[in-house]
Design goal:
single chain; mainly alpha; 3-stranded antiparallel beta sheet
């Protein structure tokens, strides 16, 4: 029976279902793994988030110890604007977000998900297949973050995540999801996050060039971009709820 849905050229029903499965699996697995992994980096007496997660009203991160902590989270009622990041701080933020230990942990987890789903069957299984998937995922992230670094400096944007002042799980979750489509300017104003989309699309377009030809179809490109956006949403959710998770872990 033919599907009643119109799918772009190269995006079969099977590919669509695999992409959907991959997105939901990535969201669930990344949130779960990150919570467990980051718990080990908690700092006693401080309400902190992961090193490359920056929170509102806290000013520039302590770049000398950015791998292990970020500034304390202020009360949610506070609307004090954050201090503007310098180009040097944005550079350190980029280095940590791309080459920090947690970045490697995310890439290892992503490669494990792709291995389990047998993404790119031509790469096979075993250590060789896993290393190819890890290298590919890490390479895509490095390209995406490099593109974003240039764009945020060009358009004077702040790459940090700013936690909401909303109450309620649903409202805060919706806010976190919205941040994937919003860019915060150095001046404190916001606008549509064009630079986020450009950098994600750039990462996918370039990284797909080392994939087999069968994985360079329109459907595969669309699926890869969707996964990249979903992964960003998962990290935003972790940013938003990490202080609450940390308090629960301390009980």
């Amino acid at each position: 029976m033919e599907s009643c849905l119109y799918l772009p050229r190269g995006l079969s029903d099977g590919v669509f279902m695999r992409s959907t499965t991959r997105i939901t699996t990535a969201l669930a697995f990344i949130c779960f793994l990150s919570t467990l992994a980051i718990a080990a980096d908690s700092n006693d007496g401080m309400n902190v988030a992961p090193g490359y997660f920056s929170l509102p009203g806290s000013g520039p991160a302590d770049l000398s110890s950015m791998e292990t902590q970020s500034p304390a989270l202020p009360p949610r009622a506070s609307h004090e604007p954050p201090m503007q990041m310098t180009k040097g701080e944005k550079w350190h933020y980029y280095l940590n977000a791309t080459y920090g230990l947690r970045s490697y942990a995310f890439s290892l987890a992503g490669a494990a998900i792709n291995q389990a789903l047998d993404e790119v069957p031509e790469w096979g299984q075993g250590i060789e297949g896993y290393s190819k998937r890890f290298g590919s995922g890490f390479g895509q992230k490095a390209i995406e973050n490099s593109a974003q670094l240039g764009l945020i400096n060009l358009f004077h944007e702040d790459p940090r995540y700013f936690a909401s002042n909303r109450s309620g799980i649903i409202r805060r979750a919706l806010y976190a999801a919205e941040q994937g489509f919003v860019a915060h300017k150095d001046s404190g104003s916001t606008r549509i996050g064009y630079t986020r989309f450009i950098s994600k699309i750039t990462g996918v377009l370039i990284s797909r060039q080392w994939y087999p030809e069968s994985d360079r179809t329109t459907g595969k490109y669309i699926g890869a971009i969707a996964v990249s956006i979903a992964t960003g949403a998962a990290k935003n959710l972790l940013n938003e709820f990490w202080p609450d998770v940390k308090r629960m872990l301390r009980r």
